[in-house]
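$ ./design --mode recover --in tokens.txt
reading tokens...
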């Protein structure tokens, strides 16, 4: 049985669980991180010395970094579906996965910490505005791209959508003023029709 260590409401864990659900792979999920702690326990650090989630365990095989886990799961169980056979298609998908973790995740994380996880009276509005400005700049690139392709992964749903949509979900589902990104909105609506997206990604934000 494949085990995923991590919280269901972490965007990086959602990627992995969503990918497994899309491919109908059986798994168990164990709560660690957030209010459950344990990330600095010796037992967890032996698996993931970075003390972050998610972490995959499959018999003796341990894998950390959410995008690496998504790639592994897609390559193992989704050769006919999520894992592009063509090198160029795969590189184009992986480009978005790298972009998501390097560019989009840092301001989303900053926004999560300073807005969602900070009580209203204690928020630093400068930090919140800066992170929102950065997120909007980056999502404009996503919106422009989606003006000429159905999915971030190309013509078909794939790993790039899985890696990016849990981050976009956070921004789209909190009470803030947002610019209109019609192509991104269309893409998001398309994803909301997927049962695995509804089950894993569309949950309460905390
Ligand atoms: N680059 C790492 C980032 C992992 C990460 O930052 N995870 C966050 C949750 S999204 C975490 O472990 N935070 C500590 C906690 O939730 O207690 C990955 O993609 O797996």
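writing sequence...
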């Amino acid at each position: 049985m494949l085990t995923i260590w991590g919280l269901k409401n972490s965007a990086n864990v959602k990627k992995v669980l969503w990918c497994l659900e899309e491919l109908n792979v059986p798994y168990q999920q164990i709560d660690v991180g957030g209010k459950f702690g344990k990330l600095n326990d010796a037992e967890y650090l032996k698996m993931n010395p970075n003390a972050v989630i998610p972490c995959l365990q499959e018999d003796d095989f341990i894998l950390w970094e959410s995008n690496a886990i998504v790639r592994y799961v897609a390559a193992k169980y989704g050769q006919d579906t999520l894992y592009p056979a063509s090198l160029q298609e795969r590189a184009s998908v992986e480009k978005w996965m790298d972009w998501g973790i390097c560019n989009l995740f840092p301001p989303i994380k900053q926004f999560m910490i300073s807005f969602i996880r900070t009580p209203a009276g204690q928020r630093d509005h400068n930090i919140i505005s800066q992170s929102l400005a950065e997120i909007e700049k980056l999502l404009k690139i996503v919106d422009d791209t989606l003006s000429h392709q159905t999915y971030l992964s190309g013509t078909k749903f794939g790993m790039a959508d899985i890696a990016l949509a849990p981050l976009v979900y956070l921004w789209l589902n909190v009470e803030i003023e947002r610019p209109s990104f019609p192509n991104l909105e269309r893409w998001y609506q398309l994803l909301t029709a997927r049962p695995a997206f509804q089950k894993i990604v569309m949950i309460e934000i905390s």
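exit 0
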